[in-house]
C-alpha cells in the first residue's frame, strides 16, 4: 500500500497528486491511501463515503512485500529543485515491490503519460462531482451555451497570486480583457466568456465582451471550465485539472504581454 499522509495545497493540487498515485496503483496492482483528502471527499462520487481517499487496483497484486515500512521523502530534493519524481522509475518500483506500507512525502510525484491516458476513464469516474454540484454545473453550462457559438473559460487568479512566485502571474484585469478580445477576434460567430475568479470582479472591466460570471463555488467553477471549448488563465493546477478532466484545449498566460493564438491551445493529456 502507498500512503500519502500530508495535504498539499488546495483542491486541484490534491486532485493532481491523487491522480498520479491512483493510476500508478491501478497499473501496478497496488493500493493507494490518501490520508489528507478530508477537505474534499464529500464533493466526488468516488470518495464521498469516506474522508480517506482509498483506491484498490482492479489488477492482481504483483508485489512481494518483505519490508513492513518504508518512506520516499522528496520534500527537500525534487520538490526544492522543482523536478518531477517519476513513479514509474526503477527506484520507486523497487521500494514499492518490497514494502507493505510505503509512505510518500512530497509534491512532485508524477506518473507516466501513457498510463495516465490509459486509466483516465477511471480517474473521471472517481472524481465525478456529486449530483447537486453536477446539476449546478449543468445549469450554468446551459446558460453559457445558449446563443453562443464558442465558449471560453477564463480563470482569473487574484488573491494568492499576489505573492505566489513573487507575483509573477498576478495580472490586472486589463490583461485578461486584452487576451479575451484577441481570442474573440480569432473565433467564428459569437464568443461568450465564463469568468471564474477567487475575488469579486467589476463587470465594467469587461464592457463590450459577452461574459457570464461563474457560480463562485470552487468545485463548480472548475468543472464549468471543463465544459468550455477553450480555457485560458495563468499557470495553475486549477486550470490544468479542468483541461485534463474535460479534454479542453487550454493555454496559459505566461506573461502580461502574451498574445494567445488558437494554435497554442492544447488539452492537458496527463496530470
Question: Can you put this structure into words, describing what you see?
Answer:
The protein is an alpha/beta fold and 271 residues long. It folds into two domains: 2-126; 131-267, 3-Layer(aba) Sandwich (Rossmann fold). It has nine helices and 13 strands. The protein has helices at residues 11-28, 78-81, 90-98, 113-118, 120-126, 131-145, 173-186, 218-225, 237-246; strands at residues 2-4, 31-34, 53-56, 67-73, 85-86, 99-105, 109-110, 150-156, 191-197, 211-213, 230-233, 249-252, 266-267. A six-stranded mixed sheet has the order 10-9-8-11-12-13, sandwiched between helices. A five-stranded mixed sheet has the order 3-2-1-6-4, with helices on one face. Helix 6 (131-145) crosses helix 8 (218-225) and helix 8 packs across helix 9 (237-246). It is elongated, with a radius of gyration of 20 Å. The model has no long low-confidence stretch (mean pLDDT 95).
Brief summary of the model shown:
With 271 residues, the chain is α/β, with parallel strands linked by helices. It is 34% helix and 21% strand. Helix 1 links the parallel strand 1 and strand 2 (31-34).
What brief labels describe this structure?
271 residues; six-stranded mixed β-sheet; Rossmann fold; alpha/beta; 13 strands
Largest sheet: 6 strands, mixed
What CATH first level of the largest domain would be assigned? Alpha Beta
Shape: elongated
Order of helices and strands: EHEEEHEHEEHHHEHEEHEHEE
> Count of DSSP helices?
9
Helix coverage percent of residues? 25-40%
Strand order of the largest sheet: 10-9-8-11-12-13
**Count of beta strands:** 13
Cα Rg: 20 Å
Mean pLDDT: 95
Assign the CATH topology of the largest domain. Rossmann fold
Class computed from helices, strands and strand pairing:
alpha/beta
Beta fraction of the residues? 15-25%
How far apart lie the N and C ends? 21 Å
Which stretches are poorly predicted, pLDDT < 50 over at least 5 residues? Answer: none
Number of domains: 2
